[in-house]
User: Fold this.
Amino acid sequence: MKKQLWLLLLVLTLIIAGCSGGETNSTEGEEPVETSDSKTLVIANGTDIVTFDIHDHNTTSTEAVHVNMFNYLVTNQGEEGFQADLAESWENIDDTTWSFKLKEGVTFHNGEELTADDVKFTLERVAKDDTLLEHGNYNQIEAVNVISDYEFEIVTANPEPALLNRLSRLGSAILPQEYIETEGWEVFLENPVGTGPYKFMDWQRDDRLTLEANTEYFGDAPKWEELVFRSIPEDSTRVSELLTGGVDVAVNIPPTDVARINETEGVTTVQSPTQRVMMLVLRSDEDSVTGDPLVREAIDLAIDKQAMVDSLLEGAGTVTRTRVTPGNVGANEDLYGESLYDPERARELLAEAGYPDGFELTLTGPNGRYLKDRETVELIAAMLSEVGITVNQELIEWSAFNQRYQERDFAEMFYIGYGNSMFDASLALDRLTIENAEGETDYDNQQVNDLLLAAEQNMDEEERAQQYQEAQEIIAEDRPQIYMFQLDAITGINERLEFEPLLNEMFYADSITLK
Amino acid sequence: MKYLVQSMIKTIPVLLLITLIVFLLIRVTGDPVSLMLPETATEEERDSLRESMGLNEPLPIQYFSYLGDLMTGDFGDSFRYNTDALSLVLERLPATFELAIASMVVAIIISVPLGILSAVKRNSFFDLFITGGAVLGKAMPNFWLGIMLILFLSVTFQIFPVSGRGTLGHLVLPAITLGTGIAAEMTRLIRSSMLEILEQDFIRTARSKGLRESIIVNKHAFRNALIPVVTIMALQTATLVGGTLITETVFAWPGLGQLLVQSVNLRDMAVVQAATFIIAIFVILSNLLADLIYRFLDPRIKYE
Assistant:
C-alpha cells in the first residue's frame, strides 16, 4: 500500500512536470539564466494597467505601458528638452496661443489617418469633462482650433508656460476620433487603437497584456515582434521570475534583493532616480514649537539623511535640499545631492531657541505607502531624540493618513513623498504659496509667494527658471519642508538586454535592445 | 424538494446581512478618492470626483440605492477599471474554480491514504509522523509555503514555472500551497473518524466473517467515515476562498482572490461588494451541497 502510494505520487509529479515543459528551463541553480526568445520582450510590473482610457487614470505604471501604443504631440526628454513626436513643429504665438503642425501620413492602428480633428477631439474631451481623473491637468486649455488637416492652435485661458509639459505626459496621447465616435468608447476600451509602434493584441486582467509590432509605424520600425506586460504583485515572485528567465525586465525590486540578483549570473539590476522626493513637512506658524526657524534648522541638522539612504535604502536614493530635482524645469542643482547633518550645532540651536532641555512634538507618517516609510519615521524619531527632541510617532494606514492630510489635521510634522508628473517646478512648489500653505505649514514668506506666483504665468523660460531657483534657495533656508532623499527605482534586467531607465519611469520597448 | 426551497429562502436574509456588513466595512475603512488621486490633487478635484462616484450622499441613501440596483442585477461599476463590477468578478471565476478544484484534488490525494493508514497503524511511528506532519501542514502560512515552493521547485530546481496561469504546470505550486492546509485538516479528521468506525460492532462482525482486512477498511469503514469528512470539505470551501486571496497574489494567479485583494486595497467598492456577494452565494451553495451528499452517503438522514 505504502509503496503504491509513493509510486502514484511520483508518477503524477512527473506527468505534471512534463506537461509544463516549454516555458521553463531545465538548468539548475547557479547556472546562467536563459531566456527562450529574442523576438518577445516580457516585462513584469507590480500592478496591472488600470484602463485604456488615457484620460481617466493617473497611474505612472499604466502610462509606462501606454507609451508603446500611443503617441503624444511632443515628448519631454528631460535635459534635452522637448522633442517632436506627432507634432512636426510648434510655436508660441502669444501668451495664450500655441500653434502646431502635425506630421503627415501618420496612421492609427486601424488604418485611419491622423488629422488635427483627432487632436481637437482628444484634448477638448479631457479639458471639458470634469469627471475624468486627468481633467485637473488639462482644464487650462480653453479650445483647440483646427486650421487645416495638419494645422491647429491650442488656446489657453491664462498664460500657460508649462503647456508643453502637460502635452508630453499621461492624458495627452492622441486618440482616433472617427473610430471612437462610430464604435463608441466601450469598443475602444476593449480594442484600443493608437498610433504607436505596438498595437493591442490581448489583455487578461491582472495577468498579462500582449502587444504586437505595428509594421505601419511612422517612426523607426519596432524592434520586438511581441511585448508582454505581466502583472506580478508579490515582490519575491517578481524577483524569482527574473532569476529563472521567466521575464526579461522586473520593476520595483526591493533593495534587499539587489545583492542576490547581482550575484546571479545572467541577470543584473539598474538603479535610476525617480521623481519622488521624501520629506518632512513642518508647521511654521507661531503657535507651534516648529514655528521658530531655529527649531526647524535644528531638526534638519539632527537628521543624518545619507545614513538613511545607505542603511534603509541600501544606497537606492539621493539626498537633496530641494524638491525640484534635475530633469525638471526650474531645478536648482546646487541644492541637489547634498544634505546637512551636524547634531552638535543642532543642540546649540535648540538652546539658542530656548529649549536647552529639548521638547516634545508629534510626527505623523503613513505606514506601508512608500518604500520603508515606517522605518524612516522611526529612524528620524531616534535621531531627533539624540539631540533632546522627544518624538511621539503616529504611524497610520495610508487612507486614514490621507483623510487627515486633506483635512490638514496634523500636529507639528508629517512625513510624505511627492511625485511630479509635470517635470516642472510649478507643481513641485505650489503647496508653499501663502494661500496653499494655509492650515498645512502656514508658511508665510511674501518673497517666495511673489516668486512662485510670478513664475506660474511667466512665458520667459529663462527668467521663469531663475524665479523658481531663487524660491528654492529661500525655502531651503526657511525649511517649511525638510527634504530627506529622492527615491531611486531599482529595475532587474536580463543581461542579454541593454536598458537605461528613464526619469519618468516609462518603458519605451524600443529603447530596450538585445546586446 | 421542500427542503431545498426552504434552504433557498433562508439564504435571503443571510445575503442581505452580508451586503450590509460589506457595504459598511468598505466605507468605514477609507476613502477611495484619496487613493485614486495623487497627493498633489486639489480639494475641488477631490470633491468633484467624490460627487461623480456618488460618495457625497448620506450612507443610508447610498445603501438603498445600491440594494435597488442589486435587485436588477446591477452591482455598479468598478472605479479602478471603469467597467461593470459583476462581469469583472464572473470573468475571474474560472481561474479561481480551477485553482480551488486542483487544491481539493491535492488535499484528497494527500489526506485519504494518509488518514486511513494513520488510523489502521494507530500509535505506530508512521501514525506519529503523519499526525505531526498534519499539525505542521496546518500551521504553515500560505504565503510562506508559496514563496518557499517557488524558491525550491522553481528557482533552484526549475521544475515548475514561477507564476501566472497557462499550462497544467502553472497550477501545481499554487494548488499544493492551498491544498496543504486543507489536507492537514482532512487527514486528522479521516484518522479520527476511521478510528471510531473501526471499533464499531459491524466491523467486528465483518472481521468475524473472515473478510480480508483491506476490504473491511476500504469498503466498510471508509465509506462510513466519509460523512464527517464531507462536512469538513464543504466547510473548507470557505477556507479555500480565503486562501485564494493570498495564494493568488503570491503566484500572480489572475483569479477572484487577487481581484478582491487589489480592490480592497484601492477601496474599489463595487468590485468588493460584487465579489463578496458571489463568494457568499458560493459558500451557501456548497453547504447545501454537503447536506445533499450526506443524504446520499447515509440514507438514514432524512430532511423534513
